[in-house]
Amino acid sequence: MRVLRVLLVACLFLASCGGTDEGPLVSADGVSGAAAQLDAVAAADVAATAARDGETWGSLFTDDIVIVDGDEATTGGVEEAVWIAEFIWAQYPDSGELHSATYVGLNDGIVVIDQWGFEGFTADAPFYEYRIYEVEDGVITAWEAVYDLDTRPFFGRGGMDEEAASLLERYLDAWNSGDAAAIKALYDSGAMRADLLFGEATGAAAIGTQIDSVLARLPGLHLELRETLGLRAHRRVGTGGPMSLTSDGDPCEVSALVYLESPGELITRERVYYQPASLIACGWAG
Question: Which domain holds residue 267?
C-alpha cells in the first residue's frame, strides 16, 4: 500500500532500539489514517457485493488486478474478476458479508470479512475471510484472500499442512523464549520480513538486526495465538493468525496478525499487521 508507506515511513524512525518507555513506536495519526483508507475500501466492497453491482465492484480495482483466492488466481484483470463475482452471486443469491475488523501493515493491510449463505454458514455462524489489500488512491491494486482453518473443509482442503503446523509452533515457541538465535534460525537466508512497527528487512543479516531491535524495544514480548490461519495459497503455503501481544509483563494486549509463507521448514516471507486501536490504547502508537 504505497499511500500507507507515505503515512508511516517518517514514523518508523521512532523505532530505534531501547525500552518501551522511550515512547510510541509509530504515529497514532499514521496508523489511524491508514486504517481509515482500508475501512473505506472494505465498506465499498461490501456495499457493491450486497447490491450485486458488478460495475461498481469492478471500479474498486485497477484494470490489471490479480486476485489470489486460495489455490486460484485471476489472470484476466478486472473483467475476469467481475465475471467470477457475478457468477458467485448468481450461484449463492442469499450470501452476504460483513466487514468486522481491520489490521494495518507496512505495505498493505488486512480486512476481516464475515461471510454466510454458503454451504450452511449463517450470519450467526459465518466463516471468516482475511483479505489482504494493497490500496493506492482509494483503488485496490492487489488482493489476496486467506481463511481460518474452520473454513478449509468448505474449500475441500482438510487441515493445515504438517510442515506449516510445525513452523507455526516453532515460531511461537522461539519468539516467546526471547532467544534471538532461535528466532533467527526460523528464516530462510533470502527471506523478507515486513513489520509495521519495525520496517522491512530482506536477507538473514537485515532480519537478524531487525529481530535484535524488536527484542530490545519490546522486552519480554509474548505472543498468544487466538485463531489459526492456514492454507496452500496459490502454490504458497501460508500460516499464522490473529495474536495478542504483551511486553515486559504489561497486561495491555496489542492485537496483531502474523502471516507467514513457507515452502518447507523455513520462513520465506513474514508480514506483521496490527489493529490501530490496540496500538494506541497500549501506548505503542501515539
Answer: 158-281
